[in-house]
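[stage:ingest] chain + small molecule (zinc ion)
[stage:ingest] validated
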Amino acid sequence: MLTKKQKMQILAEEWGRELQEIIESGCKMLNMEHAIPHIEVKFSTAMKTNGGTAQKQFGGGGVIAINLRLCYNTLLKEGPEKARIHRENTFWHELAHILAGWGAGHGPEWKRVMRRLGRVPDRCHRQDTKGLRTKQRRYLLLCGYCRYPQAISAAMRTRMKNKISHILEGNYGQLPKCPRCLRSITITDLDLAKKIRIPTPPPPRR
Ligand SMILES: [Zn+2]
Ligand SMILES: [Zn+2]
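[stage:predict] done
[stage:export] tokens:
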């Protein structure tokens, strides 16, 4: 008998091949074949409720991370056909983030890329995340100037850090600010933020 972890691992390999095919055909559709070897794929068991994430890297590449537990739960609950549709929607959605480039978010450029990939530019394809939610670890971020407290997720803390370093390297962008005194949040403030445990907030929108 295979353990759940082993089963998930086997499926991740199969789904990784599906995703690789989507990456290759998507890049070809946009005449961006050069990007194919620079897009990395990861299946993560550490993600909470979002189906996937896309992290862009300098120079056009990026990492697509897929929530393996969510894919697996969807397979058990909704069956292979629906699970495949959910997976593919997530794969195309994240690929479009990589191909749309820095700072596109779910804005017009991301939507344009989705349409060129032959996809409907919907922001969310809801998957049932029941049974996946656990207590989320959050950080208590204090403004280094006025000590104004904010609870932020671990993912948000990482995002803010990346964004600040990106800007400090001389790139354009807006530094996150303290909502009370409007001073910029610094990397030190983020490093000093302490872990706290609070009940899970409603599922994030991708
Ligand atoms: Zn402040
Ligand atoms: Zn998205």
